[in-house]
Each structure stands twice: as structure tokens, then as C-alpha cells.
Design goal:
This protein is an alpha/beta fold and 358 residues long. Helix content is 37%, strand content 16%. It is built from eleven helices and ten strands. Strands 1-10-9-8-7-5-6-4-3-2 form a ten-stranded mixed β-sheet, with helices on both faces. Helix 1 runs antiparallel to helix 2 (24-54). The protein is globular. The chain starts with a helix and ends with a helix.
Length: 358
């Protein structure tokens, strides 16, 4: 239809170009209007072709929700689980010991976030960390909090979680409504290896992305905020490329994270360096880590019509799960590969995390 309209607009302009009656001013206005019409239909055609190729939007309701920053009817979600075993309750760890290492934070009241830039002493990576603090954090100096570590996509920035996905305002509303417990959120740069995340892996001779994320970012949080330090109080959550990292880290480091959420991700390694290094692949790829069957809980979510991360990817992953590893699948009936879809999922996901994280 878009192709037809674009061709029709061009053909119509050519047919009436020299047939506009009236004085010169009227003809010039008519010509300008026809040029504008051709440009608008051409741009619409290009936009639709890009959307069809990348699957950003599946319905007009997704488009309007994205531009208005609202939710849309995704047809409801379906949930299923495999694996798992009674893990019991885990004792909360100590609060981060300090001392403060970051003196200044950039505050964004509208997005409910604090931002800092620092250099990790272990990785020597310089990156950004964007933090959400729950209501009451400043009022009660004795309270300590669990943490959800967030991972973005590629290309992408840590602020996307607080902008397009609006996670700060969403969790703030849920906490105030007492639907979830207070969490601290931290989203750090992942594309620190020449603009890419290297699948959140320490590849020899390259930027140690995993050290930055699992050592430096955690230590930064320990030193600057009242966070609990035990694995049961730390969870991961990532979308698109970041979903790979969010699923990988609990499987790889159950001593650091007991819970992970992957949104619209795929979980097979595609990095050629990692794939051609058997040792790296075995130590880092989620499918290679699954046979170890650590006692962690994962939630894998995606839109029902996501062309890049279809529900079948989750089914394939769940077919390799062995207890006590537990995996829950959550899919919507509609929804493609875009932040408007993932933003719509967050109330369910945050509710699920509320049940898992101590």
C-alpha cells in the first residue's frame, strides 16, 4: 500500500504539474504542495520499509504509545516455567562498606535517576553508571536494599532504561503502591569495547567488559550506596544484546547473582573470537553454562511477534534447562522488537523480580 501511494503521488504530480490554473502565485503554491506530498509519501515509504526489516513496531497502537510515552494493549501475557527446586530463603548479606568514592552525581528528577562517570580500578574502563534510589532511601539511614543491575542494547546508552523504558518512574509507582519491595537499580555502560559489549566477556587482549560490570560496577555500588552484598539480593535484567549479559552472569557467577531477566534476547554466542576459542566459549556462552545447572532463576520475555528474538528462541533455551536451574517464559500476544514493547512488560517483570530477590 505504501509503495502504491508513493507511486500514485508522484504520477499524480507529474500529470497535473502544468495544468494548475490561476495566476503565478497560485501555481507556485500548488507546485510546492505537490513536492511536499511526494516527499512525505517517500519518507513514509522509507520508514515503513525500515520498520518491516527491523520490526520496530507491529501495530499503530505501538507507534502512538511510543510517541506519547503510554502503554498499549499487547494482548496480555502468557507465562510458563521449567526446572527449579526448593531453594529456601537466603540470608541477606552485609551492607556495602564504603567509604564514598563518588562525590558528585548528576540528578535527573524527571527520570528518577542519578548519573556518575568513573574509572574502574580493576578493568581501567571509564564509563557511566545511572542509578535509581527508591522512595525513603534518604529518610532511613539504617535501611539496606537489594539491587537490579541493568544492561542495555547495542548501540545504546545506560540512560535508555530511564528514558525510553521509563524504568525509574515505573518502579517508583509500584513501590509507592506497595506492589513491589524497594530496589536500587544501576545501569552501567556495556558498549565499552570499541562501541560494542563483546558479549560482556573478558576477551584476552581486549577491553575487560566482564570485569568492569561484575567487579568495578558492583564495588562502586558497595562504596557509595547502602546495598546488600549477597547473591540472593542481586539480580540482572537486560534487553536485546543486554539480555545475553543478564542471562549469562547468573549462570556464570551464581555467587554474585541468583536471578536474571532477559528481554528480547538470543542466547547463543555470535562473536567470532569467542566462538573460535573453545575455552572462552565454554566459560561464557549461556548454552555452554547451562549443563552446570546452578541454582539460579531466570525469566525470559519477548514480544509475540518479535522477528529478532521470537518466542521459539525461549522454547529452545528451555529445552536445555536442568534443575535446580529454573526458567520462566513470558510472552505477549503481539509486540515486536522495540522499547515500547519492553516498557509495557516492566510491571509484570518487576512483580516477578519482587518474588525472587530477597
Amino acid at each position: 500500500m505504501a509503495v502504491f501511494l508513493a507511486v500514485l503521488a508522484f504520477a499524480g504530480c507529474m500529470a497535473v504539474w502544468n495544468r494548475i490554473p490561476g495566476p503565478g502565485v497560485v501555481r507556485h503554491i500548488g507546485h510546492a504542495g505537490m513536492i511536499l506530498l511526494c516527499q512525505v509519501t517517500a519518507l513514509a515509504l522509507v520508514g515503513l520499509l525500515i520498520n518491516n526489516a527491523r520490526g520496530f513496531y507491529g501495530t499503530w497502537s505501538e507507534v502512538s504509545a511510543d510517541f506519547l510515552g503510554t502503554s498499549f494493549d499487547d494482548g496480555g501475557g502468557q507465562e510458563s516455567s521449567v526446572g527449579g527446586a526448593g531453594g529456601g530463603h537466603h540470608r541477606s548479606g552485609l551492607v556495602g562498606p564504603g567509604p564514598l568514592t563518588q562525590k558528585h552525581f548528576k540528578t535527573d528528577q524527571g527520570r528518577k535517576s542519578l548519573e556518575a562517570r568513573f574509572t574502574g580500578p580493576a578493568s581501567h574502563v571509564t564509563g557511566r553508571a545511572v542509578i535509581y534510589l527508591p522512595p525513603g532511601y534518604k529518610r532511613d539511614s539504617r535501611a539496606s536494599y537489594p539491587v537490579v543491575q541493568l544492561f542495555g542494547g547495542t548501540p545504546g546508552e545506560p540512560t535508555t532504561w530511564y528514558g525510553d523504558l521509563n524504568v525509574g518512574n515505573q518502579i517508583d509507582q509500584l513501590i509507592n503502591a506497595r506492589k513491589v519491595k524497594p530496589f536500587i537499580l544501576v545501569s552501567a555502560s556495556i558498549n565499552v569495547a570499541g562501541g560494542k559489549p563483546n558479549e560482556c566477556t573478558d576477551i584476552p587482549g581486549q577491553t575487560p567488559v566482564a570485569t568492569w560490570l561484575t567487579k568495578d560496577v558492583r564495588d562502586f555500588m558497595y562504596q557509595n550506596f547502602r546495598v546488600k552484598t549477597d547473591a540472593a539480593s542481586w539480580a540482572t535484567m537486560g534487553y536485546s544484546e543486554g539480555a545475553y549479559c543478564a542471562v549469562k552472569f547468573p549462570l556464570q557467577h551464581p555467587n554474585l547473582y541468583r536471578t536474571g531477566v532477559g528481554i528480547a534476547g538470543t542466547y547463543e554466542s555470535t562473536d567470532p573470537v569467542i566462538r573460535h576459542n573453545a575455552k572462552l566459549l565454554k566459560a561464557n556462552a549461556p548454552y555452554e553454562l547451562l549443563p552446570k545447572a546452578p541454582a539460579v532463576r531466570l525469566l525470559l520475555a519477548t514480544g509475540g511477534r518479535d522477528p529478532e528474538a521470537p518466542p521459539s528462541e525461549i522454547d529452545k533455551f528451555m529445552g536445555h534447562v536442568r534443575p535446580p536451574t529454573a526458567v520462566t517464559k513470558y510472552t505477549t500476544k503481539i509486540g515486536e522488537h522495540g522499547t515500547v514493547v519492553w516498557r509495557n512488560m516492566l510491571p509484570f517483570i518487576l512483580g516477578w523480580l519482587n518474588k525472587q530477590v530477597s
